[in-house]
Amino acid sequence: MTDSSIFMEIAKSLLNEIKKSKIIGIGSGRTVSEFLDNMSLICKTENKYIPSSYQILFKLKENGFEIADTIIANKIDLYIDSVDQIEDKSFFSIKGGGGALLKEKILMHNSKKTIFLVQSKKFVSRLGVNCPLPIEVSPFAVNFVSNYLKKFNGIPEIRKDTRGFPIFTENGNIILDTTFKEITDPPSLEKEIKLQAGVIEVGLFTKKPSKIYLIDNNTFKIIDLDY
Questions:
Q1: pLDDT (tens digit, 0 to 9) for every residue of the chain, 227 residues total?
Q2: Residue closest to 25 by CA, chosen among 73, 95, 72, 61
């Protein structure tokens, strides 16, 4: 289990990057949440933050960070997030386990720089192995999209709560967690799936991060891809 103190060390390492970024986008999930708890102890600057979910909105407010108005903000200097899986050579990733993939992808694609905080067990040689691909879909199109995904040998399942009811995203859509034996060409699969009407977003992130903080228990190393 990762010691929470490692997130304090990462926050210290990122301090200069954070201080020079006026608008910062923040992804969702347990890793990001724990990072924010630690960052708040050492960094209270004039930055403004754009959350990718209500979970992170509440976490930012709880820690005293100022929220940016997305209607006014037209650029993001830095985006910080984690992943469900990331390929160790291409650095393509799967995200959306928490259901925030639409906003996360919007923030990442409109950010000058992206930093991923990645647990070492999330690094894989091939995406999709033991990790379903989340696909956000209009409720009206669930059956149509499900049939379409089967053409790519995908096995889609509606994400449900403990009572067996469909889980709706903050955008009012449904998640199809789709199992593939493996994903050999993430950019092509992302494009093919998004061609189907009713698909809102795909949890394949084929824009590479600028930097990765690779966390292994109580240590981390930095992989710099911004070259």
A1: 466 789 999 999 999 999 999 999 999 999 999 999 999 998 777 789 999 999 999 999 999 999 998 767 778 999 999 999 999 999 999 999 999 999 999 999 999 999 999 999 999 999 999 999 999 999 999 999 999 999 999 999 999 999 999 999 999 999 999 999 889 999 999 999 999 999 999 999 999 999 999 999 889 999 999 75
A2: 73
Q: Which structural domain range is residue 40 located in?
A: 5-123+206-224
Q: How many CB atoms within 10 Å of residue 41?
A: 10
From the list 17, 46, 62, 104, the catalytic residue is 104
Question: Rounded distance, CA 174 to CA 163, Å?
Answer: 16
Domain identity same for 82 and 151: no
Say yes or no: 72 and 117 in one domain: yes
pTM greater than 0.90: yes
Active site residue 157: no
Phi then psi for 44, rounded to 5 degrees?
Answer: -125, 85
Q: Determine how many CB atoms are found less than 10 A away from the CB of residue 127.
A: 23
Residue 128 inside a domain? The answer is: no
User: Rounded CA gap, 24 and 46, in Å?
Assistant: 11
Query: Do the strands 174-179 and 133-137 form a parallel or antiparallel pair, or are they unpaired?
Result: antiparallel
